[in-house]
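Lab notebook page, bench 4
Experiment: in silico fold of construct C2
Operator: M.H.
Input chain length: 57 residues
Purpose: comparison with the prior construct
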Amino acid sequence: MANLKITLVKGLIGTNPKQRKTVEALGLRKRHQVVEQPDNPQTRGMIKLVEHLVEVK
């Protein structure tokens, strides 16, 4: 299965707590941090919730 590279491109100030927890669950803590997550429906759903904060490759 392929992996997705997820980068946090915007800060979390002003976001609601659910979005913060989702970003944390993806393994992101700081801006411009890059993590690799498996490409599965669960990860895609989390990305969909915070698509305005992250960039996916």
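Observations: The chain has a mean pLDDT of 97. The beta strands are 3-8, 34-38, 54-56.
Next step: discuss at group meeting.
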